[in-house]
Specification:
404 residues; alpha+beta; Immunoglobulin-like; 2 domains; 6-stranded mixed β-sheet; 26% helix; globular; disordered N terminus
Length: 404
């Protein structure tokens, strides 16, 4: 085994599958294929803290054989429908009729994490949550040779406005289009209500920063920070999304950050650059750029790369001096010095700090062995095209290739 694997000798017993690049052209349905239309409508109701959601197959419902929803019984309730609906535990199997096909339900917007803080919240003045919460995960069986198209319409209380990651039609509806999914389903962060919004186009990406008013969110500071750093991110990831939504709010929202497709949440109290030189905002932007999921015992790779490249982006963009950049690496090394193994299910804190040091060493060896032709940048770009989970074995194979 190549010498770089000595850096990973503490990882044992990890089984992984080969990772293949995403085949965007072949996996995404051709536009010429006949389509059935999914029309999602959501009515936001602050008083009971719910959204009433209706899914209608507005064209060719006879092409859809069934839809299986994976629901949360504590959040999804009051199902109404046409056609046939069969409940199997936490799964709902819907067989739509050949015409007038629809299913409707209520979903509780509030979502609380284990520490008691919220990652979904609604008040009389605003709401912030994931669009994923509106529609449960779903599997669908439909006629061969067809594809889905989807639109989203959101009905808001008087005086409210909304920010989403989706482009908007002149009708006010949103185009929901995800080439990586067979069935288009709303995803990503949403914020709505009495909100303040700042927009800027940076290097081809339409950036929106939105938050409820009077929450202490520094929208223009964030835009200015992104004008300085996002071009470096885009050069690192040539397929960086062409639309980016950043949402924020103060307590009682979770005091951290969370990424989602083409969007991220950042608590209002989180600094754009921490005292140790790291950046939660850039860390989450790396997650947005990579859209990566970790396989068994590979979370240190995904989280380590996000932290490693948060420092790289700050340094390469000139936001962080070389001295502060080196100090940041020293602090991370000190934090992770007592970690004996990265072989864990979830990477956090000192484990991620330890992973940053390992990745930096791997980058140095790639540069040396390839005589400067390759670096860890080439590995991470390949990982960003992976269709499926990132595995330790697949990561090792990519690193090995870059050393030749």
């Amino acid at each position: 085994m190549r010498s770089f694997l000595l850096l990973l000798v503490f990882i044992t017993g990890v089984a992984g599958c080969y990772m293949l690049p995403r085949q965007a052209d072949s996996a995404a349905p051709s536009q010429e294929r006949p389509a059935f239309t999914l029309f999602y409508t959501a009515w936001i109701k602050p008083d009971p803290g719910i959204a009433t959601v209706k899914l209608r197959i507005s064209s060719h419902p006879d092409w859809v054989n069934w839809m299986r929803f994976y629901v949360d019984p504590e959040r999804h309730e009051n199902f109404l429908h046409s056609g046939e609906l069969v409940r199997e535990g936490d799964e709902l199997l819907w067989t739509p009729p050949d015409d007038d096909a629809w299913i409707q339900y209520d979903v509780k917007i509030e979502s609380r994490r284990s520490n008691g803080r919220y990652d979904g919240y609604i008040t009389e003045d605003w709401a912030l949550f994931r669009a994923d919460d509106l529609v449960p995960p779903v599997r669908t069986d439909f006629r061969d040779g067809t594809q889905s198209r989807a639109k989203l319409e959101v009905h808001l209380p008087d005086g409210w406005s909304i920010a989403t990651r989706y482009p908007r039609y002149t009708s006010g509806r949103y185009k929901v289009d995800d080439p990586d999914r067979l069935i288009d389903r709303p995803t990503g962060w949403l914020v709505m209500g009495r909100i303040g919004t700042r927009r800027e186009t940076i290097g081809g990406t339409k950036v929106t920063v939105a938050a409820p008013v009077d929450q202490g969110v520094k929208r223009m500071d964030m835009i200015a920070f992104l004008r300085w750093t996002l071009p470096t991110m885009q050069s690192l990831f040539p397929d960086f999304p062409d639309r980016l939504l950043i949402v924020s709010a103060d307590d009682p929202m979770w005091r951290g950050a969370l990424s989602a497709p083409n969007s991220l949440y950042l608590h209002a109290d989180r600094p754009m650059i921490s005292g140790n030189g790291t950046s939660t905002l850039i860390h989450e932007l790396v997650h947005v750029a990579m859209s990566a999921r970790s396989g068994p015992k590979a979370d240190w790779i995904v989280e380590g790369l996000a932290e490693y490249y948060s420092l790289e982006v700050l340094h390469r963009s000139g936001t962080l001096s070389t001295e502060r950049y080196e100090n940041a690496h020293e602090e991370l090394a000190e934090w992770g010095k007592d970690v004996e193994s990265l072989d864990v299910e979830r990477s956090h804190g000192p484990i991620t700090a330890k992973a940053v040091g390992r990745l930096r060493a791997i980058d140095a060896e790639i540069r040396e062995r390839s005589r400067g032709r390759h670096s860890l940048d080439d590995v991470v770009r390949e990982l960003a095209t992976i269709d499926g989970d990132i595995t330790v074995e697949g990561f090792e194979q990519l690193v090995d290739q870059m050393m030749d």
